[in-house]
DUF1206 domain-containing protein
Amino acid sequence: MTSVKGAVNEATQTRVVEWIARAGYPVSGLLHLLIAYLIVRIALGFGGEADQTGALETLARSGGGALPLWIVAGGLIALALWRFAESVLGLHPAESAKAHHRDSPIGDRLKAFGLGLIYCAVAFTAIQFALDVAQWGKTTTAGLSARLMQSGGGKTVLVIVGFVIAAIGAYYVHKGATRKFLDDLTVPGGRFITTLGVCGHVAEGLVLFAVGLSVIVATYVSDPSKATGLDAALKSLGQTQFGTVTLIAAATGFAAYGLYSIALARYSRM
């Protein structure tokens, strides 16, 4: 294990590797801006799919061919690998030449590992679109959820997944409301970046929390159709009394997080 940590530590000390990882932030920011655009379309009655899949589908139809999708996948994989490095060494390994000897809270390592898995999942979806097999992936995912609900062990897995998504959402809300995200920056922040960070984290956290709850409820009633993702959760919000206003607010939050992510390419602590 020591040799693994040493190898990971040596890799994260390389400036080239660090800047490749930083390139993942504007990719994440672009996806959030596309989701914000899709949410506005839904709010105005034009329809669409307001989630990572919808954003990637928008890229696939942009006329640039598969190249933008491969760029997205590459950027997210680079960012995922950096998160996995943080799960081994602790947060911000590039800041210490002796990061492999540093103790780091297990909670920080688990959060880094979870984010790495999320980036990998979105990157995998981007690759599916690049290879034109995205619809097959959707069918497989839906079928997997239905099969898991047919057994006690499968339901347990889904409930755990739901709780994890809800917990991540709650953490994002807390991180935004308390401005804890400022600890991840190499600069004091300033009014503009702070506003983007607060709005973005809170908005994304609330939506993720709703998605996590929907997975738990769907598992409890054994109805896969109720295990809604980001798109369905947003559309459910749009059907409430102040749906249009709520969706515009959500779009603003996602756009804010997108711009904040782009700023992280320059100001994130690594």
In short: The CA atoms of residues 40 and 248 lie 6 Å apart. The two ends are 22 Å apart (CA to CA). The chain has a mean pLDDT of 85.
